[in-house]
Specification:
The chain contains 14 helices and 14 strands. By secondary structure, it is α/β, with parallel strands linked by helices. The chain starts with a strand and ends with a helix.
Length: 363
């Protein structure tokens, strides 16, 4: 990945990816070429070239050990036939402009959501004294530093915060259209609550791109989803789902964050979404939560885990009976395997305590 991919996130820091804390330099302070050809990134390239792993890549390593498909393997599937060492600049970007967001998701925090600021302040967990944390300080300066690479990008992944309420996201789409790079994969992680913002209608912009993939962060249907992701309106989500059907260049998937809040319920959610044509059977991407550890599915008791295993066995029979690709079962199986990897049931009381505190703050 360090030959083709660059993540730009916290305070403008360019890193190996959105999970591994492997910093290469700050895009607010350096030009992209300086970072891309710098000592920090070349050191990790040399390490990987020798077949050595890095402890900061633990997330992908754990997923692969559990039999799952990590971000690393997914990237190889998409771009493994290219010759990345000969490429001058990255062509797969992950850009997080800021923490601007309109949700207070239970498994999130102030650093990734401006809406979380007041709650974080009440809990003594805020980052600084301002709600909005800008990663990219100046959009025009960012474009001047990265424009050459963005013009030849094959994939741009945009997350947040929430992209659909982030002004720089729309400015980037307009810039890509103006500069003729619309034949690429434009991929999103979004709470899918909004399709318009200020003067922009994102559907009008998306229809000018060849391939748009939406990964909708939905952790539950109806009341449960609204509880986990504060400010979510399930009826609005359903309306937005219908709105995007007219664009044939859009792939729509759901990407639940798998936590103690929804692990038991996920099979029922999946069955409901498939039966109502909210998603096609293969259009699910499960994202295992690791932190905070008191929301991690490894905190279930032995008895709870046994009950979940039993209910998933019934679900797997349903998948088989309905001829659904093993790709789906494999994702759920990875969650079960990860759940069983460790006994963290000592954290159950902390989960209850944290939930009670947040319930009080969020009413």
């Amino acid at each position: 990945m360090p030959w083709i991919h660059l993540h730009i996130g916290d305070n403008g820091m360019a890193k190996a990816c959105c999970v591994a804390n492997i910093p290469f330099g700050n895009i607010n302070e350096k030009n992209l070429e300086e970072i891309w050809k710098g000592d920090a990134i070349n050191q990790i390239r040399e390490k990987f070239s020798k077949g050595e792993s890095d402890k900061r890549c633990a997330k992908c390593i754990h997923v692969e050990q559990a039999g799952g498909k990590s971000m690393r393997l997914e990237t190889f599937e998409k771009y493994g036939d290219l010759k990345p060492i000969e490429n001058i600049l990255p062509y797969y970007f992950d850009i997080r402009f800021s923490n601007v967001c309109n949700f207070r998701c239970r498994t999130c925090w102030h650093g990734a959501s401006s809406k979380w600021f007041q709650d974080a302040k009440a809990l003594g967990r805020h980052v600084g004294e301002k709600a909005i944390i800008k990663n990219i300080k100046d959009f025009d300066a960012f474009i001047s530093k990265t424009g050459t690479a963005l013009k030849q990008a094959k994939e741009i992944y945009i997350a947040g915060g929430e992209p659909m309420v982030t002004e720089e996201h729309y400015l980037l789409l307009e810039w890509l259209i103006k500069n003729g790079n619309t034949d690429l994969l434009l991929r999103y992680n979004t709470n899918f609550s909004k399709l318009t913002f200020k003067q922009w209608d994102v559907l009008q912009l998306w229809e000018q791109f060849s391939n748009v993939e939406i990964m909708a962060s939905i952790d539950g249907i109806g009341e449960l989803g609204e509880y986990i992701r504060k400010e979510m309106d399930w009826e609005k989500i359903l309306i937005n789902r219908e709105h995007i059907r007219r664009l044939k260049n859009i792939q729509f998937k759901v990407s639940p964050t798998v936590s103690v809040f929804n692990m038991e319920y996920l099979p029922e959610m999946y069955k409901e979404m498939v039966s109502t044509n909210f998603i096609r059977p293969k259009d699910i991407y499960l994202n295992l939560l690791e932190r905070p550890n008191y929301y991690n599915i490894q905190i279930f008791s032995k008895e709870q885990k046994a009950a979940i295993q039993k209910s998933y066995a019934v679900f797997f029979e349903w998948l088989s009976k309905n001829g659904i690709d093993s790709f789906v079962k494999d994702q759920f199986q990875v969650c079960l395997d990860y759940m069983e990897e460790k006994d963290d049931s000592r954290l159950w009381s902390k989960f209850l305590n944290e939930t009670e505190k947040l319930d009080e703050v969020q009413k």
